[in-house]
Each structure stands twice: as structure tokens, then as C-alpha cells.
Amino acid sequence: MAIGEQREPEMVTRRGLVVGNYCHDVLFRDGRVVGESLGGAASFVSNVFDGLSIPCNYVSKVGSDFAYSVSHPPITSPSSMTTLFHAHFFSDRDSSRHQDRILRRIHACDPISPSDLPESQFDFGLAVGVAGEILPETLERMLDICRVVFVDIQALIRVFDPLDGTVKLVELKDSGFFHLLPRIGFLKASAEEAPYIDIEEARKWCAVVVTEGKDGCRVYWKDGELQIFPFPASQIDPTGAGDSFLGGFVVGFIWGLPVPDAALLGNFFGSLTVGQIGLPKFDSRLLQRVNNELQRKIHCMGCCRTRDTAADFRMSVEHKEFQAALVEATKLLTTYNGQEDEWNSQNSPTKEIEQIVHQQNGDPQKLFPDPIYDETVQHVKAAKT
Ligand SMILES: Nc1ncnc2c1ncn2[C@@H]1O[C@H](COP(=O)(O)OP(=O)(O)O)[C@@H](O)[C@H]1O
Ligand SMILES: O=P([O-])([O-])O[C@@H]1[C@@H](O)[C@H](O)[C@@H](O)[C@H](O)[C@@H]1O
């Protein structure tokens, strides 16, 4: 190619590394089981990446009891059980934010050590542990082999009650990961986690994205901050919204979008996630529309994907147009949602589990001794095979 000849802008394929364990999620509302699903940030992130054809390596560990088939096979630890979370929601409180979710880690699979990571180099990495499986030395190794690393703070600051596994949070500076901050590209936190970071200190070292549920998100960097608007959504289950947000944000970033536009794409996928229980299904037509929009944007930017890891925080002149295009894409969901409701009503395990649990227990309050639920789930699964 002659020097100076304009290259047709194109998405240079970037390869990533996603590190974090898949898990089993059980959702309770007012003490009643309302759903059980594949979980773990890696599953929500890969759901977005697969939908938008982002090539990635995944390092995730599960036990031999892992109950789901996934597009990126995990490492099975025969001596361990799959990470299991019980997420308790309550109708009498505003569950539009996770603050009112009580998370309990019932089982924890083996941690991911540096030697579990591939030897090769990667353009980007996502440290997305949910149950303490990412060790400081593992994150350090990720920082060595990935050019830019996106970290979900829930991988760093969660601790677990020794008696019942209830998830609590510790200050980042007391987490054992603080010294790695200057090497992290982006730190993602929910509004509930943000107070444990000291954003004024952290932003000196890396960009911080704080997701704010139905209010969208806020991006902080050394010299500024920006509020990025949300997309409308009727929330059914907030689980995984932050994970899908991070997936969308990273896609925007590696496509070369300015950070505010990447955050908008994150908001978009977060809003689609809360409208479904567990791992969301994205309409293929909607995903195609998003891909077309990304192609259009990099064409308009007249640049091939040459930006290295330098982040561009300027609000693009096209930000509003991008937002409008994504809103337009969600209109495809109106028809699909009709089928989706059909899918939920017919296929959701919830009803079966509720009926069996009710028969067995009469009073759903008995649900709390979790083994009852686990046994019921096994029974339901067995009945399905
Ligand atoms: N009820 C909602 N309506 C619209 N968008 C939402 C809603 N809840 C979450 N989102 C989107 O998903 C993103 C992540 O959600 P949030 O609940 O803040 O993350 P986390 O799961 O980490 O707590 C938000 O920044 C927002 O863009
Ligand atoms: O809802 P969110 O915080 O984005 O992410 C969730 C984790 O916090 C939770 O521990 C896990 O069980 C879910 O599968 C999901 O990954």
C-alpha cells in the first residue's frame, strides 16, 4: 500500500482474554425461587462478545457438577464444585439498584492462577471474577500479557461471610490489588461498589466507569468526567446488567469508538439484560443492526482501527446520532419480545420449580434451608432429561 493512500476503514480484529469463573445462579424473590440460570460475568460478557463476533480466549473454572453448555468450554476442576450464588430480591424495596439484592456465595470453585492463563499476548483483557477467583498474581499476569485490561471491581473487593457466604465489600486499598491500579486501563464499578474505591485517588491512575442502574453510567478520568445517558428498559432481573455493560463497553472501545460512545454501547447492552431473567437472548436482527452501526461509525471516523490503547474521552459530534441509532435498533424487540414472553412462559424452569417446591414444602419460607432447593433443582433437571 502506497504511503498516504487512504485505507478503507475497517475493524482490525483484536483478540482478547476473558478471565472469570462461570457460576450457577439461583434467584429468589421474597424467599421464593423465581429462576435459576447460568451466571458469572464471563457468561454475560461472552454473550455480548459472541453476538458481535469478538474473538476471545476464556479462562473459567467449574466443577464436575456444571449444569450448562457454553460456547467457550471451561476448565473442569474435578475436586471442586461450580461456584453457586443465591441472589435474594425483595418486592418491598426498590430493586432497580443492586443495593437491595442480597448475594450469597454458596459454593466457590477453585481460584484461577497465573499458570492457568495462556502463554500468548492479547490486545485486551477482562478481569471479571465474581467469587474471589482472581488472585492478585493472576491479575498481574493479565497485565503482563494484555495491552489494555478492563477490571470489574467486584473481582477485587468482594469478601464472603464464613457462615453463610453473604457477599460484603472491602475498600480497594485494603484488597491486596491496589498496587496494580496504575497498570489497569479501565475500572468498572456499580454505584454500590463506588464508595469502596476512592474515585478521586483512582482516577489519577486509571479511568473509572461507575454504572448507575436506570440512570446510566458516569465516566471519570484524570481530567474530567461525563454522565452517559441510559436506554429505557422495563426491569425484570438486574442480574448481569453490569457484566453486559462491560461487554458492550469493551466492544465499543476495541472498535475505536471514543469512550463516551463505548459507554453508550455498554448502557445499551445493560438495558437489554435487565429485561430478561438470567442470561439475556439478543435478537439476531438487533445485533446485526448494532454491527452495521459500528461499521458506519468507523467509516465516518475515516480511520481504520489504528488507535492503540490511548483512550479518547471527547464526546463525539455523533454521540446523539449513535444513541438514536441504538434506540431505533431496540424497536426490533417489540415483535421479538412477544415471542420472548412466549419463550419465558413456556420454557422458564421457574414454574416447574415453584410448583414442585410448593408441593414439597407448602410454605415457601421453608425454602431458606438451601439444600431443599438444590435437591429440587436436581429433581427438575432429572425430570427434563
Ligand atoms: N433499570 C434499568 N433501565 C435501564 N438501564 C439499566 C437498568 N439497570 C441497569 N441498566 C444499564 O445497565 C448498566 C449496568 O447496570 P447496574 O445495575 O448499574 O450494574 P451492576 O449490575 O454492576 O450493578 C447501567 O449503567 C445501565 O446502563
Ligand atoms: O449483576 P452483576 O453484578 O453485573 O453480575 C452478577 C454477579 O454480581 C453475581 O455474583 C453472579 O452470580 C451473576 O451471575 C452476575 O455475574
TrEMBL record:
PROSITE patterns reported in the protein's UniProt record: PFKB_KINASES_2
Domain of life: Eukaryota
GO BP: myo-inositol hexakisphosphate biosynthetic process
Gene3D superfamilies, alphabetized: 3.40.1190.20
Domain Carbohydrate kinase PfkB residues, every copy: 207-278
UniProt keyword terms in alphabetical order: ATP-binding, Kinase, Nucleotide-binding, Transferase
TM segment ranges: none
Keyword Nucleus on entry: no
Catalytic class of the enzyme: transferase
Record-linked InterPro entries: Carboh/pur_kinase_PfkB_CS, PfkB_Carbo_kinase, PfkB_dom, Ribokinase-like
Protein's name according to its UniProt entry: Inositol 3-kinase
Originating gene: LOC104601267
